[in-house]
Amino acid sequence: MIEPARQRRKSARPGELSAAALALFVEKGFAATRLEEIAARAGVSKGTLYLYFDSKEALFTAAIRDGIVPQLESAAARMSALQDDPEGMLREILSACWSQIGSSEFGGIPKVMIAEAKNFPEVARFYYEHVIVPGRLLVERAIKRGIETGVFREVDVELTASLFFAPAMHLSVWKHSLAFCEVCQQDPEGFLDNFLEIFLRGLRAPRQGTPE
Q1: What is the 3-state secondary structure (H, E, C) of the chain?
Q2: What is the sign, positive or negative, of the torsion defined by CA atoms of 116, 121, 127, 133?
Q3: Do 141 and 186 sit in the same domain of this protein?
């Protein structure tokens, strides 16, 4: 049975509203964005918006839940095929982090969180628990696997995992802030490839007979 166009439109509306909200949060900041602006951006009335969401916080969490969380879950699933290749696991995570999240509209969220986390602690906590923690656990999993298989040397796994996302975070914040000052724009993929090569060199276990 073909779904009527009106019903399809109704079912798609929550996603359209959360996407409009996300765009405005990145452009204007969380505090400065008003619900009526979100409704206008999505092409609906404020009353229609309230049929689906009762606050900016609800719109933010919907955007994260529907946009970023599935990407992290997908990356975790792909890693299952790379258990014998811990370096490949880390490459997969960083590639997905940038191509699916950092280079998209979601890449502006770190800037919003840095600027407004203390003023909206519940929003910040949701982002931390559903994005930062799962992402870090994926990296820890890859590093631990590398140590177990002798590919990586012994390191502080938690500290090393925290370091792993710093360059991607820098790129995301830069893209939505000072990037407009650059005459020659950075090559994000080249930047991250360079970082990953340095990062992996530091992680690799020394070959037998080679000093650490």
Answers
A1: CCCCHHHHHHHHHHHHHHHHHHHHHHHHCCCCCCHHHHHHHHCCCHHHHHHHCCCHHHHHHHHHHHHCHHHHHHHHHHHHHHCCCHHHHHHHHHHHHHHHHHCCHHHHHHHHHHHHCCCCHHHHHHHHHHHHHHHHHHHHHHHHHHHHCCCECCCCHHHHHHHHCHHHHHHHHHHCCHHHHCCCCCCHHHHHHHHHHHHHHHHECCCCCCCC
A2: positive
A3: yes
Q: Give the chain's domain count.
A: 2
pTM reported for the whole predicted model: 0.83
Statement to judge: residues 36 and 133 lie in one domain: no
Q: Of the residues 60, 82, 107, which one is the last residue of a structural domain?
A: 60
CB 66 within 8 A of CB 18: yes
| pLDDT tens string 88-146 | 999 999 988 888 888 888 889 999 999 999 999 999 999 999 999 999 999 999 999 99
Partnered with residue 204 across adjacent β-strands are 152
208: in domain: no
209 located within any domain = no
